[in-house]
Amino acid sequence: MPEPTKQIYCAGCRTETAHAMALDKNQEIVATCGVCQRPVKFPMVGSPAELDKLIAAHKTASAGQVTVEMAAAEQAVHDENFLKVLGIG
Amino acid sequence: MAATFAWDEDTGTQTGAPTKGTTRTAGVTNVNWKNIDDSTTAYTAAPIVAGNNSYQKPQFGHFSGTFNQILNGLFAHTATAFGAGLTLKGIQAIVSDATRWLYTTPATTADANLTTDMTSAIAIGSGIAVWFGATGPEATGKAASMTTNPCYTNFLTTQLQTTGSAAAGDTATVTLTLQYDEN
User: How remote is the C-alpha of B65 from its chain's centroid?
Assistant: First the structure.
C-alpha cells in the first residue's frame, strides 16, 4: 500500500506540501514534509474532520512567519537603497 | 525607573478556575524541555527519548516595579536552528480571552492547543501577539496593553516534539524572545 499523504502547511518550506502520514509508537500522527523532511505531530483524533481541523489550525497559526534569513535579506535591500540615496556605492 | 521583568512558570496538577498550575515558580532562567513536569530537575536527569515529546512548559512574563503601561507584546523563537526530528510547538496568537492557552496538567502527549510551529528562528516582528493582564497568566481580562501593576502575560507555553530521527544528546541552545514596549 502506498504511504498515505496529505497536503499540510510546512513552516520550513513556507507553503503547503505533501506530507507522508504515519502513526508513531505513541499512537500520535506524524506528518513529514516530502520536500524538507520537517515533521509535525498531531494527537490521534476520532475522525477525518477533526484531523483536518487540527491541520487548518496549524496553518493559521504558522503561516506568514518571516525567518531571520528573510528579515536580513530585506534589511540588506533597505541598506543598499539608503546608500544609493546618499550617493554611496 | 523601569518595570521589573521576570519569567515565571507553572507546573503540577491543574487547579482552580481559570486553571493554573499547583506550583508557581518565579524567576526561571531557562526553558529546558525535558521528560518531567517541574522547574527544578536538570534536563540531563529527565531526557526525552527520541520519538516522544517533552512535558509542556507553561511559562509567562511577570511585570512589577515601576511603569505606566506594558504593550505591544510579541513572542517568537528568534535564534538558532533545531536539529532534525525536532519540532517546537507554541501557543497561537492571542486575539481574545478565548484564544489564550488554558492550563492543563502537563503531559507528554502532543498538545493540540499548541498550534504554532516555532521550529524555525524568525524575526521578532512576525512573532505571535501576546497580551497582558492582572492576577496571573490564567486570568481573563487580558488586553494588548495594560496599566495594572503587577501584570502578567498570557501563558507562553511551548512543547518540544520529537521523532525517532532526533539525534541523541543536547539540542542546540536556542533563544525564545518576548518583546514588549513600556510607557
Answer: 22
